[in-house]
Specification:
418 residues; mainly beta; four-stranded antiparallel beta sheet; 2 helices; 4% helix; globular
Length: 418
């Protein structure tokens, strides 16, 4: 007993044992087995057993680090951890998998929903309790799309169909303050208003023209209508053409928390333009970039991808009137230009990409300020193959999870810890 006390005192004095709790992603406390400087599953006599030279054992998985290093694993909060399998330190120290497990340094994604026969899931959005998405199903009257909702904890094969007669859905906006969804129906040249509780067979329909790329800021919606960037009220009134009449715009975004600017991509002209909200024909060039497609924004940054679907480059740049120094976040990403997911929390950018090595949908991330063009793969969900119709879908997040959709013989919705 006296020897144990002496060993512990020496270890604490050397900084090899920690008495503070380990914190995983999102500020959550890790399990109690990680609060000490040793693995409590290991017998105490083994833990403090001296090595042949009399020094205490350190550096192995589950044991105190030797200073700041480990002979195996990674030193996380003074304890050696196997980041390939450790649920609370998955892929990196402090990255916890929450309700899932860790394998090959990635948290295992959890399936929340499946809808047989539905394909081409587009935008994915979430509120405090549910996840929402639209399935395009190829578009057209003969193959109408649908708007679905599902509890964040999962709904098996029975998500709630909020509306089921969308001609060709392109974008989805969720207004959590009004519990309302707005769906851009390019095929019917309208946008639809449907409560998050469902709208049966009678959503509010607002005629607008062929519309794609829909976003919201306050009481205004922003959409690409007849290839022009437009601003209008949620009832379709007060329509303002922000472009010059010949924009050929593809996607549009109104940054959250910024009431001054709206941005849109123009792939044929290799540029992104910026307009002033409420001012007609106010567009000016923001950045010259090859074939820009999807564009998103957080409160400080604009993020977009350029190039081709089989080899896209992802950029970021500080919001403003002009971008002089875009940052390359990642290159050669196999993305989906129409349906692929793409989101930023202000610190990190996340996207869906096809992982040809693992044959599946990958969730990748990079700091918005850059990651040396080496994004991290957070999860991979294995699918049959692109040849069999696998289609990447939208992506959204809350403080704990990323939620994403794809189709492969049906539409799947998953979540994974951030």
């Amino acid at each position: 007993m006296e020897r144990r006390r002496i060993v512990l005192i020496k270890l604490f004095a050397a900084g090899l044992l920690s008495c503070g709790g380990e914190v995983t992603a999102g500020g959550r406390d890790a399990s109690s087995t990680q609060d000490s400087g040793y693995d409590t599953s290991v017998p105490f006599d083994v833990l403090d057993a001296p090595s042949p030279d009399g020094a205490p054992t350190c550096g192995a998985i589950g044991f105190a680090c030797c200073g700041t290093s480990c002979s195996t694993g990674v030193c996380c909060n003074a304890v050696c951890r196997d980041t390939a399998l450790d649920t609370n330190n998955c892929g990196a120290c402090g990255h916890g998998c929450l309700t899932s497990t860790c394998d090959k340094s990635m948290c295992i994604a959890t399936q929340l929903a499946y809808v047989a026969g539905e394909t081409d899931p587009e935008a994915v959005r979430n509120d405090s309790s549910k996840v929402y998405w639209i399935s395009t199903n190829g578009g057209g009257v003969s193959l109408p799309g649908s708007l679905y909702g599902c509890a964040k904890t999962g709904c098996g094969n029975s998500p709630t169909k909020l509306y089921g007669s969308i001609n060709y859905a392109r974008s989805l906006v969720l207004d959590t303050s009004l519990n309302m969804t707005y769906v851009a129906d390019s095929g019917s040249k309208t946008f639809l208003l449907c409560p998050t509780a469902g709208c049966g067979s009678a959503p509010i329909v607002v005629s607008k023209g062929p519309i794609r790329g829909l976003d919201q800021h306050g009481l205004n919606l922003f959409g690409v209508v007849n290839d022009e960037p437009h601003q209008f009220k949620t009832d379709g009134t007060n329509d303002i053409d922000l472009g010059n009449g010949a924009e050929v715009a593809y996607d549009i975004v109104a940054p959250p928390g910024n009431a001054s600017y709206v941005y849109w991509t123009i792939p044929p002209a290799d540029k992104i333009r910026v307009g002033v909200t409420g001012i007609p024909n106010s567009g000016n060039d923001f950045v010259i970039t090859p074939t820009p497609a999807r564009v998103i924004a957080d409160s400080s940054n604009l993020i977009w991808h350029s190039g081709s679907p089989g080899g896209s480059t992802i950029f970021s740049c500080t919001l403003g009137a002009v971008c002089t120094a875009p940052i390359v976040l990642a290159e050669n990403q196999i993305l989906d230009w129409v349906f692929g997911g793409f989101i930023s929390d202000g610190t990190t950018v996340y996207w869906t990409a096809y992982d040809s090595f693992n044959s599946g949908v990958a969730i990748r991330s990079c700091a918005v300020t850059g990651c040396n063009k080496t994004p991290k793969t957070l999860a991979v969900v294995h699918t049959a193959s692109l040849a069999l119709g696998m289609q990447m879908g939208g992506l959204t997040l809350d403080q704990d999870y990323l939620y994403f959709a794809f189709s492969d013989g049906g539409t799947y919705v998953y979540r994974v810890a951030r």
